Description:
The chain contains 14 helices and eight strands. Helices cover 45% and strands 13% of the residues. The chain starts with a helix and ends with a helix.
Amino acid sequence: MKRIIACLLTTLFYCSSCHGVDKPVNIKPIKVLLLTALPGSGKSEIRKFLSTLSDETCCTEFGLQSIIEIDDFPYVHLMRVISGELVKLNCQGAYFLSPACSFRDPIEWGTLIHLINEDYYDIMNRKRAQPKSAALWLFNRFDNARKKMGAQPILSKLSKKVRTQLAQIIEPEAQKLLKNRNAEISKAKDLQHATVIIEFARGGADSSPMPLPKPYGYQYAFSQLSPAILEQASILYVWVSPEESRRKNEARANPQDPGSILNHAVPRAVMFSEYGCDDIAWLVEKAQKPGRIDIVAHGKKYQLPIGRFDNRIDKTSFIRNDQKQWKKTETSSLFNGLKDAFEPLVTI
Length: 348
């Protein structure tokens, strides 16, 4: 309730600390925030930091209302788990041939976006899933998302024996994903005063020329998002170099917790083949309007506002420590950097 009241008051918000002068500033609440960057850049750390701030601060400084989260990493993790378990069952990995490899078929980058679209639809319609088997529910979702990409389903073509064995093995992991998904949907009580944060990373091979070929990069990923998302979306991009992305990706790695949002690691070979660069700077440069990127999708052109958080000098890794260990200088640096990045997204 505090956040809702604060957001209603911010249609005319007085913020001398942001602008250096005593004048009213209009703050535009963000409905959908696409939180994007190369792996390890600080996206999830920023989400954790925002969760520690008061409702009023999130709203008046960043235009964020009651936060609901979508992240495609749990799907990638389950795709890796499924592939590994199939290999143990003397079958070919469904999505990855080995833990060190990229997707067998790069079309899965689009599959992931369709899973995001479905998550967003279910949030907007408060549609919680309650299947008898979370694993079989997940198998069907993966296959249906592939069909939307014009590809053949994979898991429904497994033998009944293998499919049953696989479902039993991954049921605990699938239940965890389902529980977390339903928890986010349960937050959707007042969608008028909510912000959906959608996190994902996209890129292309090291030293690739622009534009990146389909299905790589953000131009393609954004074009696959549903009209319902694109009509509402703003972009927060966390800016680091590919070299810094690789360093931070390795620094955060915890082999004992590969499914962790904060502590998972992308295989090194994938960091070069899939995340050696990205196309955000190219999209910003070619846009018709400053502070926007142009995305053609669903028969129309969307001009999405974009803010860039400069994390080339690391401002976010401290978030992985216990909150009691955070230093005021660290939190102030991160807070002020985020204010600068959010300003073009919330200033009318």
